Amino acid sequence: MPTPHDELALRLREAYARGAVPPLRDGLDPTDADGAYAVQEINTRFWVAQGRRIVGRKAGLTAKAVQTQLGVDQPDFGVLFDDMCVADGGFLDPAKCLQPKAEAEIAFVLGADLLSPDTQPDHVAAAVATVHAAIEIVDSRIADWKIAFADTVADNGSSAFFALADQGLPLAGLDLEGAPMEMRINGECVSTGVGAAALGNPLNAAAWLARTLAARGEPLKAGDILLAGALGPMVALKPDDHVEAKIGGIGTCTFTYAKA
User: Fold this and answer.
1) Which among 20, 101, 156, 224 could disulfide-bond with 234, CB atoms 3.0 to 4.6 Å apart, if both were Cys?
2) What is the per-residue burial (b if ≥16 Cβ within 10 Å, else e) of 51-66?
3) Looking at the DSSP assignment, which residues form a beta bridge with residue 106?
């Protein structure tokens, strides 16, 4: 017999193909973190059973202003699957999205496991193999982006796709906190920010993610990709948009929102 969480999970899965659905108020209180992660986990298990492969995690709500907007005092996370990766310089077919927005981020690829629920930023730093400029393409299966905390968590952190710069750098010597970000669409600057937007430092966001997942018995492992949170405002995408994210001292990542 399906539970209410099973029914919400199915509603979100069907929305990928059928179109966005109203907020999940009938089954989730707007701040019900446990219920929302239960829905997310149901869909994660479903997709893994369908053959999708988990390649990492994303941290969301890492900006204090966004947390305040949604009435929460913590970030959230979602799962990254292999089929969500868009090649650096590649294309993303608009037919695969509902109401997408792009945001520039710093990403890490781990070279070692992070198994402890007491993981600190220096532990993350020691485990990082490479640092990359990245673009997350967020999307929502909730109509008109009218999301509360529980909506976005249940909806896999409002995730869709991500692009990772081919060229990664070792962490040593990089100024993550002060790294300036500029995102351009069709050559026009549409978003700016700085590394400190992600919980003061992207390593702080990654450490929160590592602690949270270890406590859930799902620790981060070597090879995992971590998206550490937006460095500036997200921007809605239109077909044929060319998106470029440049993060000072770290690199540049691009993709085109069009069919290849």
Assistant:
1) 101
2) eeebbbbbbbbbbeeb
3) 133
Q: What is the 3-state secondary structure (H, E, C) of 25-94?
A: CCCCCCCCHHHHHHHHHHHHHHHHHCCCCEEEEEEECCCHHHHHHHCCCCCEEEEEEHHHEECCCEECCH
Q: Write out pLDDT tens, residues 92-112.
A: 999 999 999 999 999 999 999
CA angle 92, 69, 151 (to 5 degrees): 55
Total number of residues shown for the chain? 260
Complete edge-to-edge strand list for the sheet that includes strand 241-247: 90-91, 251-257, 241-247, 180-185, 188-194
**In the predicted model, what is the mean pLDDT of residues 5-16?**
97
Report CA Rg, the chain.
17
> Left if phi > 0, otherwise alpha if psi is -120 to 50, otherwise beta: which for 194?
beta
Judged by average pLDDT, the poorest of 59-73, 127-141, 167-181 is 59-73
Say what the pTM is: 0.96
Identity of residue 101 = K
**At residue 201, does pLDDT exceed 90?**
yes
User: How does residue 2 score in pLDDT terms, banded at 50, 70 and 90?
Assistant: confident
Tokens, residue 213: 């997942």
If one counts every other C-beta atom within 10 angstroms of the C-beta of residue 91, the result is: 13
Tokens of 67: 């947390």
Distance CA 206, CA 202 (A): 6
Give, in degrees to the nearest 5, the angle at Cα 114 between 59 and 140. Answer: 20
The single residue listed with the structure tokens 């929305």 is 15
Instruction: Return d(Cα 206, Cα 119) in angstroms, integer.
Output: 9
For residues 11 and 15, what is the distance between their CA atoms, to the nearest angstrom?
6
